[in-house]
Amino acid sequence: MPEPTTTRRSPEEMKAKIESLQKRHQAVLEKRAVLNGQLQAKKQELAAIIEEIKAAGYDPKNLASEHDKAEQELEAMVVEFEKKLTDVEAALAVFDKR
Fold first, then answer.
1. pLDDT tens for residues 48-79?
2. Which of 13, 29, 36, 39 could form a disulfide linkage to 9, CB 3.0–4.6 angstroms apart?
3. Which residues are within 8 A (CB) of 9 and not within 5 positions of it... i.e. 6 or more apart?
4. What share of the chain is helix, strand, coil (3-state, %, to 5)?
């Protein structure tokens, strides 16, 4: 941050400086209000997502492990389906040879 100047300002310069600082301060307050609004909207979105996760029967705190578990179950089902499909294809091949 720049150090305050020690030179004296004229009343007009002081008035202009104060007006400039007030405008900057107002701009900061407006930006803060916008950001607070955005923050509140994001918090509401997050709360809605958490409720949706809970309504689906999952614990948001364990979502990663729930995902991994579901992925493993799906992989096991795919492997089992492929095995059965291979058995059926082999049986059909035997049937087609007759």
1. 999 999 999 888 899 899 899 999 999 999 99
2. 13
3. 17
4. 85, 0, 15
